Every structure is written in C-alpha cells, then in structure tokens.
Task: inverse folding
C-alpha cells in the first residue's frame, strides 16, 4: 500500500529552534503564542492561529510560503493508465474555478488559505467564523472611541477582504445556515461605520451575491449528476449474461485510441473539476473518528471509506469521481469479455491498452489464450511505471517529469497533468496519520498543515488547464451510458470465452451458473 515514503523528521517534526512572533498591535493573550522558523510560521496554539487570521488596522495575514521540499513534490500521481502514452493519450482540463480561488491559490500559498482549509480538522467552519466575528468585534470596540474614522473604515475594508477570500476559496462552507448567519452578522458589524452606498457596503453586497451564485451553481451541478446517476440498488446499468447480438461495441463508435483518449480526458477532468479543496480535506478531517475501522493493508483508502466518517453529502464529489473510475474499468472489462471470437478479443485488448484501465480485473487477466496473442510491449511499459515497489517510485518519477514539463510548456497538451486519484488520496491520508496534529508543548504542528495545503494546492492547480480537444458527443455518450456487466456477469462471460483451468475456477463457474439459473 503506498504510503508517504519520505521521513519528515526535519521538515514536519517538533525539532529545531523557533522564534516567537513579535506583537502585531493590539491582540489577545494568544498573540505571542506563535513560533516561526526562518520567517515561516511552524506552530502555535489554536487561539493564536485564529487571532493571526484576523486583520487589524496595521496588519493583514501575511503570505508566508509553506515549507517545501523537492522530495515532497512527488506526492501526487499522473493519470491512471493514460499518462504514459504521452504521444497517444491526451491530457485535458475541466472548467475553471472561480477566479477568486486562484488568487488565494496563487504561487504563494497564503496562511489564510492554509488555515481556512486545515482548521476544519479542529473545528467546523461555522465555529471558526463565529470566533472570527468575536475577534472582529473586540478590534472594533478598541477603535470606536478613537477620533479617526479612517482607521475604522480601513479595518472594516480588511475584514471584508478576508471574508471575500474565504467565500471565494470555500463557498461550500457557507451552505451551512449557521455559517451564513455568522457571515451576515459580521457583515452587519463592519458596515455600521460606512455611509449609505459606501465602498464597504458595496463590497459586502457583491461578495454575498457572488457567494449565493456559487452555491446555486454547485447545487445545480450535483442535482444534474444525481439525475444521471443510475439507482443505487443497481450500481450501474442492469446487466444480462449476454448482450443482444446487434449491440454495438466501442470499436463501432471509435476505432482510434487517440480520439477515445481525448474524450476520456474530457470526462475525467470534468469530474476532477468538481472536487474542491474542502472536499479533499474530508480525507483527513474525519479520519480520527475511524480508529475502529482503519483500512487494512489490502483495503483501498478511497472516498467510499470516508462515508463511515461523516456527512456523505460532504464527500459527494469524491464519491462521484471514484464511481466514474470504477465504471470505466468495468466498461473496459465488459467490452473485452463479451467478445466471442478470440481474434476480435485480442484486437479489443490491444485497443484499450493505450487508453484505459480495467486490464487487471480478474475476468480479463485470466484470459491467457487471448493475452498470448496480444502485443504487450505497451502494456509492459505501463506495468513498469505502475510497479508498486519503493512506494511507486517509477510512477512518482514520471509524474515529477510531467509536472516540470507542464510548468514551462507552451502547448496546452503538455500543461495537463492528472494524478492517479487513489494514490493521491492515500498520500494525504498517510501524511495525516503519520504526523501528529499537536506538538509536545500543545501547539498545532503547522508544518504538517503547510504540507497538506501544498499538496492540495498542487492538485487543484492541475485542474485549471483548458482542454484543447474537441468534444465528440457520440463517443462521450457511449462511454457514459453503454451497458456494463456486473462482476458476476463478467466472470460468466470470461468463462464462456475461455473455460475454467483449475479446480477453483471450475467451482466458481459452477456456482455462478447455478446462481444464474435460480434468478432466471
């Protein structure tokens, strides 16, 4: 199972000397409870970090870059099966995120973004917002007796800017009625100093309007995908042991692996684009509640595991992406296993080797006679890159090269990098599990959260590239709606193509046929 392979003792551990942050104006008792190393915030109490988030007249949360390491830059992965056919398989991207998110997620991963993202490990967003409101009120009360209204207006403008960054980077935090109520309460307080139609009031109005539009758009997208999703009891289109003889296959719709890869890339990144930073934090924000259900060595750490940890609605985007990848694998296996003639089955395998997962599913992998006729050179290269030894070292090296090329590329094709999502999830999961949230002195280990923020930021950046390929509705429709076999039906079709070769397979084949007859 891939785990975070680099030892972080010098990067994320509690060792090393630190300096206490000097005072930044009027602050509470926790203001000096922040530790910096080489100008970077590395630890602090939760109260001090919350106070550090809130601006004053003279201060706005800094853009201190997180600790980075070339070794840690290899934490996420290239696409599942596609990245290594660079000359044949395209890379694309889905729709852009709100512009404000990318201001926050620019080259400097700010303290604001990192703390807003990772603080949900310790408290829900609406509680953090309530505390921000309290600190704002305390700051305002200190300014109100003063004769200079300009200072009060300057402070109010900075608070509005903080809220604007929050609502643009994490709009879904405000779908919670408590959080939306806290936001409106803070907005009311900071606008009291502003004249009618003043700049602060206008900024607040625009911010809330944009927030409501973002929430509505996300809700509509989720509703649309729910309508397109098959009923949960089916877990995919209902399958028969054999499809109708006249049913077309993928080669009847698209005979060029390059074109198919382009359409797969469109679909892939449309789903990746619906994953937001706070969705990824669900991987770890509920992980401590799952101590009684820790994934074993062979159990994948995916969004489906997360359903036992918390609100399923919060993991919807992760679940949708996971479901898409599983359906694609099953579609590939269906296309291969349902072909009756070995010659045609061989052609189907060679076609899919270039572009899609599913080759390693048991019903496909067991077709030894078919595989003996397949030219496996490309598949051997792919298996080399997917070799799990040394924590997927080959794969990570390939990703590092793809990432470096994307940063300097002029071609939109070369700019696109898609991680292998399950490996990315595992890296985040183990980074959280291996490194403690708190240091021995009780401080939050903010080095750890800088690194989590860096990895999530990098993932989100990869979804920003425009897809250069033209959509083919006919091919996409087939990929999304073609009937697929259940696992049982796949084994039946596989055994009908190539009979069982050992006692275990013979017993499985007999049991499957009995089950099928009883259902009929």
Result:
């Amino acid at each position: 199972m891939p785990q975070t392979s680099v030892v972080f003792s010098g990067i994320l551990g509690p060792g090393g000397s630190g300096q206490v942050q000097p005072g930044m104006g009027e602050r509470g008792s926790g203001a000096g409870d922040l530790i910096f190393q080489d100008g970077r915030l590395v630890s602090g109490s939760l109260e001090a970090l919350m106070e550090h988030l809130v601006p004053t007249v003279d201060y706005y949360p800094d853009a201190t870059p997180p600790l980075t390491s070339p070794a840690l830059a290899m934490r996420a992965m290239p696409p599942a099966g596609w990245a290594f056919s660079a000359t044949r398989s395209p890379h694309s991207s889905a729709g852009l995120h709100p512009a404000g998110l990318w201001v926050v997620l620019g080259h400097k991963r700010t303290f604001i973004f990192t703390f807003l993202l990772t603080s949900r490990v310790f408290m829900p967003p609406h509680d953090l917002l309530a505390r921000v409101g309290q600190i704002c009120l305390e700051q305002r009360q200190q300014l109100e007796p003063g004769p200079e209204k300009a200072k009060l207006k300057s402070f109010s403008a900075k608070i509005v800017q903080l809220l604007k960054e929050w609502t643009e980077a994490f709009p879904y935090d405000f779908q919670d009625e408590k959080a939306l109520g806290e936001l409106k309460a803070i907005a009311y307080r900071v606008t009291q100093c502003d004249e009618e139609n003043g700049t602060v009031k206008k900024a607040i109005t625009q911010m809330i309007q944009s927030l409501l539009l973002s929430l509505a758009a996300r809700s509509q997208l989720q509703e649309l995908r729910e309508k397109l999703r098959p009923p949960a009891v089916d877990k995919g289109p209902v399958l028969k042991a054999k499809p109708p003889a006249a049913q077309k296959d993928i080669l009847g719709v698209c005979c060029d692996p390059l074109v198919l890869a382009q359409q797969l890339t469109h679909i892939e990144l449309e789903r990746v684009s619906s994953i937001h930073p706070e969705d990824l934090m669900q991987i770890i924000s509920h992980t401590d509640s799952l101590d009684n259900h820790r994934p074993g060595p062979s159990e994948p750490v995916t969004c489906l595991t997360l359903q036992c940890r918390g609100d399923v609605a919060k993991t919807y985007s992760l679940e949708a992406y996971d479901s898409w990848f599983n359906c694609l694998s099953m579609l590939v296996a269906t296309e291969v296993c349902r072909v009756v003639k070995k010659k045609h089955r061989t052609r189907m395998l060679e076609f899919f080797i270039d572009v899609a997962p599913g080759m390693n599913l048991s019903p496909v992998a067991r077709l030894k006679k078919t595989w003996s006729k397949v030219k496996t050179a490309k598949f051997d290269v792919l298996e080399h890159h997917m070799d799990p030894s040394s924590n997927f070292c080959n794969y990570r090296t390939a990703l590092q090269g793809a990432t470096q090329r994307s940063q300097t590329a002029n071609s939109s094709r070369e700019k696109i990098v898609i991680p292998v999502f399950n490996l990315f999830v595992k890296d985040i999961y183990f980074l959280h599990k291996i490194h403690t949230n708190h240091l021995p002195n009780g401080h939050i280990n903010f080095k750890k959260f800088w690194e989590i923020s860096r990895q999530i930021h990098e993932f989100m950046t990869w979804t920003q590239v425009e897809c250069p390929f033209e959509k083919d509705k006919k091919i996409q429709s087939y990929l999304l709606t073609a009937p697929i076999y259940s696992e049982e039906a796949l084994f039946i079709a596989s055994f009908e193509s190539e009979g069982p070769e050992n006692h275990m397979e013979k017993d499985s084949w007999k049991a499957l046929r009995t089950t099928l007859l009883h259902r009929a």
In short: The chain has a mean pLDDT of 75. The two ends are 41 Å apart (CA to CA).
